Amino acid sequence: GRAFPVDVDACQSVGDLKDVIKGEKTNDLKDVDADKLQLFLAKVEKGTQGSRIMHNGIH
Predict the structure, then answer these.
(1) 4-51 per-position pLDDT tens digit
(2) In this structure, is the dihedral angle defined by the CA atoms of residues 21, 26, 29 and 33, taken in order, positive or negative?
(3) Which of 4, 14, 16, 27 lies at a 20 to 30 A Cα distance from 59?
(4) R_g of the chain computed on alpha carbons
(5) Residue 58 carries which DSSP code?
(6) Is 55 helix (H, G, I), strand (E, B) or coil?
């Protein structure tokens, strides 16, 4: 798959993030429950594309 932006507040949980991802990719994830998604930390150097979605090292 490809990376895509989602908006979540820093105070939201990983479960909330999974729900947002599931909502953005309903067709691709139609047979996958949000709680079954596996998320991995990705670090991006400052000034590179995607750095705006980093918050305290959390992607």
Answers:
(1) 889 999 999 999 999 999 999 999 999 999 999 999 887 777 766 554
(2) positive
(3) 27
(4) 12
(5) B
(6) strand
Rounded Cα gap, residues 50 and 48, in angstroms = 6
| Segment 47-53 long-range contacts (CB within 8 Å, at least 24 positions apart) | 50/3, 53/5, 53/6
Nearest to 3 by CA among 50, 56, 57: 50
Q: How far apart are CA 25 and CA 46, in angstroms?
A: 27
In the block, which residue shows the tokens 């998604």?
A: 37
Tokens linked to 19: 């729900």
Please give the structure tokens belonging to residue 6. 């989602």
User: Would you say the pTM of this structure is higher than 0.85?
Assistant: no
